[in-house]
Design a protein that fits this description.
- It is a single chain.
- This protein is of the alpha+beta class and 163 residues long.
- It has one domain: Glutaredoxin.
- The protein is 41% helix and 18% strand.
- It is built from 6 helices and 6 strands.
- The chain has a 4-stranded mixed sheet with strand order 2-1-5-6, with helices on both faces. Strands 3-4 form a two-stranded antiparallel ribbon.
- A hairpin with a 2-residue loop joins strand 3 and strand 4.
């Protein structure tokens, strides 16, 4: 009986602990406010992925590139990721400033959000979807990644940024 009790006391904690360890099978997306807070606190870059509904390149990136296990691991371990609709009607507060979509709600959703405009305009690119922006903890844009990226290319670019 003592052996059984001793073995139980050893095995049960091991089994309990192992259930807490998860292999992340998807990107752990955060809302912008939380990512901004964590980026400032831990001096780690944010990765903002802008998409729009009905965009075939955005859909491809969401379903393929951002589902690739290597990309998931790379993003989850090195960035605070945020996914935003570049045409959302939501009011977004970023870096203490309020951003809106100036198009009236009843007019539909084909006009870009002001935050999207503010962040991509200095990249020298037209409004393009999907669009990834890497921002440091001091709100400085480190890198612009416009367009659809296959997994191998995105991995290469993110590794270059992390050097």
């Amino acid at each position: 009986m003592k052996k059984f009790l001793l073995i139980s006391l050893i095995i049960i904690p091991i089994l309990s602990f192992s259930q807490g360890i998860q292999n992340k099978t998807e990107i752990q997306w955060l809302n912008l406010n939380k990512a901004e807070e964590l980026s400032e606190k831990y001096d780690t870059d944010m990765l903002i992925f802008f998409f729009r509904k009905g965009c075939p390149d955005c859909k491809q990136m969401k379903e393929k590139t951002l589902k690739n296990p290597e990309i998931i691991k790379l993003i989850n371990e090195n960035f605070f990721p945020v996914m935003l609709d570049g045409r959302t009607k939501d009011t977004i507060i970023y870096n203490g400033k309020k951003y809106i979509n100036q198009q009236p709600v009843k007019a539909g959703s084909f006009f870009r959000h002001d935050l999207y405009h503010e962040l991509v305009i200095d990249g020298g690119y037209q409004y393009y979807y999907p669009y990834i922006i890497i921002i440091d903890g001091d709100h400085n844009i480190k890198e612009y990644l416009p367009g659809a990226y296959p997994s191998i290319r995105l991995k290469r670019r993110l590794l270059e940024i992390l050097k």
